[in-house]
Design brief:
This protein is an alpha+beta fold. Helices cover 47% and strands 12% of the residues. A five-stranded antiparallel β-sheet has the order 1-2-3-5-4, with helices on both faces. Strands 6-9 form a two-stranded antiparallel ribbon. The model has no long low-confidence stretch (mean pLDDT 93).
Length: 335
């Protein structure tokens, strides 16, 4: 299907559900989805354009409806076309937490609400149909580091060395890979959180980009929030929010701290690999600018005593001079 054909389908879908409207494309994300704001004289809505051969809008709708059913501000689903991959959504505005941060208007209150929402969400079991964030998925994700990033910075690993990486990660994750206690939204960070000043309580935080939600460990989304790949989170703020979550959930600081570091290292390794893949495979080279920040988070996580063996692996095969290298698409020849 050509882009022109897709645009015609979008126009027909909007004509059916909104009548005459003007379209403005919103920022793309790291997926194959596109987002548009459709405006009429009576208001606006957001169109999610998710090619059905690449994305599952049904999963987004199911999670959105669940989040709304427990009182959270996920966008209301106004219309769907599952066959075409279109979802028309309530427009939650433009006040992302990342926008507030970029304009100097973010403060601790925004993070307090975000942490309190996680604590509330984590007080409930995940919906029964939620896929598990299991060992296979976690290891597949962290392997993006060795399969995309290291080739991109001219590091060639022998097969046995790659296998050692996976095995070390298997051991590190053994206590967390079969924990399916909570709904994990997976991309719970400032660019996917909206501030809705006209609402009250936890409803002040609008939620986006949760279609890949899984059942997993409660530390994962807290890592997403406090080790944000797209902006620097003040260390004092991160520490205070970590402790706020512990108080709200009555979790053991030592064991939860270990989980936070290990899942943080897994997530940040994965992100470095994903950002490399986006640059190499999809031509989205702007993501490479974010890798140094993610490395800083990863180094902090790897400092945890339970990650000592993995820390040695990273130091040996991705030393500081490698970490300072610029990814070269030409080096990733096997993908």
């Amino acid at each position: 299907m050509t882009e022109l054909d897709r645009d015609r389908e979008i126009a027909a879908f909007l004509a059916q559900h909104m009548g005459g409207s003007t379209l403005a494309q919103l920022a793309d994300d790291a997926s194959f989805r596109r987002y548009w704001r459709a405006e009429t004289r009576d208001g606006s809505a957001v169109l999610m354009d998710a090619p059905p051969d690449k994305e599952d809008v049904g999963r987004f709708v199911a999670v959105a409806n669940y989040l709304r059913s427990i009182g959270f501000s996920a966008p209301k689903v106004l219309a769907t076309d599952f066959e075409q991959g279109f979802v028309l959504l309530e427009d939650l505005g433009d006040e992302k937490l990342s926008t507030l941060a970029a304009t100097g208007r973010i403060d601790w209150l925004h993070y307090e609400v975000a942490v309190d929402l996680l604590a509330d969400l984590h007080s409930r079991p995940p919906p029964s149909a939620t896929p598990p964030y299991n060992e296979t998925m976690l290891l597949g994700e962290v392997s993006l580091f060795v399969d995309w990033y290291l080739p991109g910075v001219a590091v060639k690993l022998a097969p046995a060395v790659r296998r050692s990486f996976v095995e070390l990660w298997r051991q590190a994750l053994r206590r967390y890979a079969n924990v399916f206690d909570v709904l994990v939204l997976r991309d719970y960070h400032a660019d996917n959180l909206m501030w809705l000043a006209g609402r009250e309580g936890l409803a002040r935080l609008g939620l986006l980009d949760f279609q890949d939600a899984v059942a997993g460990h409660p530390a994962y989304d807290l890592v997403s929030l406090l080790e944000d790949a797209r902006l620097d989170v003040d260390v004092a703020l991160a520490e205070a929010m970590f402790n706020r979550y512990l108080t709200a959930t009555e979790r053991d600081p030592k064991s939860f701290g270990a989980a936070f570091a290990i899942l943080g290292a897994q997530r940040n390794s994965k992100i470095i690999g994903i950002f490399t893949r986006l640059a190499v495979r999809d031509g989205k080279r702007g993501y490479l600018d974010l890798i140094p920040r993610v490395w800083r988070y990863l180094e902090r996580d790897l400092a945890h005593p339970e990650l000592a063996t993995l820390r040695d692996w990273y130091r040996r095969h991705a030393p500081p001079d490698v970490r300072d290298s610029v990814v070269s698409p030409a080096m990733v020849t096997s993908r």
